[in-house]
Design goal:
about 5% strand; single chain; 13 helices
Amino acid sequence: MKNNEYIEEFLIYEKKIKALSDNTVKAYNLDLEILLSFSGERKLDFPSFTNEDAREFMRKLEKDGRAERSRLRILTCCHTFFTYLEKSGEVDFNPFDSISLRSGGRRLPSVLTVEEVKELLSQKVNNFKDERDHILFLFLYNTGCRISEALSVDVDDIEWGERRIKIMGKGSKERFVFLSKKALSEIKEQYLPQREAYLLEKGKVGEKALFIGERGGRLPFSSSHIIFDEYREKLGWQKDFTPHTLRHSFATHLMDKGADIRLVQELLGHESISTTQIYTHVSRAKLKKVYMDTHPHGKGNKKNDRNDNCSGS
């Protein structure tokens, strides 16, 4: 059996037997494509994969400049895949057992500054694809939606008068997300007319999806990540920039403005408030930086001797 056939069988098992979501299976497929490429370059069959091959793959991910979080996700996926092969009797052991899948510490999510959001949303629009990308960024930042939730939205789901959309989140949990007047205006007056013209051109009149892809159907999950990679390169950003970055930025900026954590929890669709609490850490980190940079006793202020103390008498 060829390497790609092992992957195909694994994905079918995850979808049909374990009943994982389409998006999770697609994410597995994208990560395993990286492993497939690596094994193809070295002419390695999965049944002959060794511990050293797994470690070499890990080093390759590091050499490619992938962020720690991305590396851990890919390695975890590979570990799950080889566990399946081991249980199926295709391999004698899991070579990824030799690799630690624990992060070096709690990592705060990547967040854009307000200025970076403005830079992102002020990119020049030259064609329909640019307009669609702009509205996708605007939508994610306005609502805090997960990318899977945004891509599932139909035009008819928008309640224009209430400026809201009912979203089906994880665990089939429904919630409302909201759009600003500016966002709603741009969608209605700029994006939708261009969308209709594009669908007419592609012979796809009647498509319900708000966000459409190159062929006129619903924008694929995999294509959305390519869009973010393109803009990260275009803007010259060194930080992570993924659909989740805009979700993190939405929540963090709300917390910075004093929003109640339980309100943010509801808007994000978090089951537990402990998940939302990560954003209090982000906001505290920002507050600490402001203090250290500006307060007379902060280490960022050079005038810090006894003559410059600002305590009251």
